[in-house]
């Protein structure tokens, strides 16, 4: 049985090295009075113009920062702080002071209509905030019975409109899973929950917020508002607590931090216990999600004079109740449970506003979820070594070890077509070329293009409608200070391929010679891409040319071999592959020379 929900995650980010002579810097951000860590505090290198956030233990790490740079720290409810990078390196700890509050102003503002008008104005501002984009990091962690069951880490090109997330286009991703009593927790579209919450718009996926209301009268009917505090510096900012008059689970309670002069939302916290409106769905039609509780937090930074999303954090918990359809599982498994309690924490961080990744050159099958896209991605070790990533806590390191030993690592260096326990849902329809592994079409896939073959008199010649094979040249491109870095892989596309040849041994031989010829073209492409000084347009042109050459080469191969039926032609093509790749398919598949 697989359990399904939509989830999100937690993070701390790094930046790639920007210049020679700089050094990594790691430190911890804490409350100046209590010395407690400040999780997800924002840290920006002022000269570099990009930022990171701290992890759940308040730790951040910048892999390359100049000694003359300045680090700017910000955290909700605390005074902003700027410190020289050299001083932070010497201290290893940054202490932030809580903001001051003017209580007398609180008593006045909390009783008049201006407060309701301010909230309505702030909601209007969010709805007209305008569009922006940037590099976005996302991670989740889900646990049950104090065991990690899922961890997702993804990079996206994020598209935003005010407080709304309009699109998340996947750059790279990896997933860790651990079965509990033989069952996996599977979140088919990891970023969907973030995109469904529109804080300043009415929607059916989440409880309502005060920012969604357009009139003071309607807002008063739905919510009681109270000013908790007013911060005077660096700008006058109200902390407004909102309490719904209907506690039935369709309205959020929480706090808003509002800039009074500009009518802008600087942060919000939303809470709902026993939510009746949420976007999470069970896998089984008879299963239920019970006792759903949700905590949501969104913070904004200022870009070109307007607020833009900085971090979106979500925590939620629920009890997954299996329905009557699980009775047979319960009868077979003494450890079977009808109720599973899950806790998910996560965060999405727009860490480079205005910048975008170059998305991989690869054609995904229509409608694929993030899970399927991750399964289709060859592991690009250089990307993960240099991209912003998490400073792991000790618990996270232990979790990853557990995933590797007893579960699954998808989109990871350990991902191979033969990894144990990858059957069923986790079985990919893509195969990555490897000299050590050969492919086969496990199932003879049906196709509308298939028609009964018209065999020749000797019955030896195959026809084109018995066979359709597609391979893609996956290409990931990243900007670096030195130019562009490229990573490529040859990917067999099982979504679009089918084979109806009768002799399975000869069919497998044909498939692998076809795949090997594609790999030869990839190597030629990669050699052309390794030439220094290429422009992005030239890189794209080389990739497109390589795919055309691959199609021409494989088309010639199929025609000359009569779709595998001509043994002499198969031997000639096998010799070419053996000379260039060192792979002897005739020997591997036990097809003797001249075997017709």
Short structural summary:
The chain has helices spanning 85-91, 103-109, 113-127, 192-196, 216-222, 327-332, 370-375, 381-386, 394-406, 504-529, 536-560, 567-581, 585-588; strands at 2-4, 23-31, 42-45, 50-53, 59-65, 70-74, 81-84, 93-96, 131-144, 147-161, 164-177, 184-186, 223-231, 237-244, 253-259, 264-272, 288-303, 306-321, 339-353, 408-410, 430-432, 467-468, 471-480, 483-493, 498-499. It has 596 residues and is an alpha+beta fold. Residues 1-21, 105-110, 414-423 and 443-460 have low confidence and may be disordered.
Protein described:
- The strands form 6 sheets. Strands 13-14-15-16-17-18-19-9-10-11-20 form an 11-stranded antiparallel beta sheet, sandwiched between helices.
- The relative contact order is 0.11.
- It contains 13 helices and 25 strands.
- It is of the alpha+beta class and 596 residues long.
- The model is unreliable at 1-21, 105-110, 414-423 and 443-460 (pLDDT under 50).
- It folds into 3 domains: 23-96, Carboxypeptidase-like, regulatory domain (Immunoglobulin-like); 102-324 and 336-359 and 392-410; 431-446 and 461-588, no CATH class.
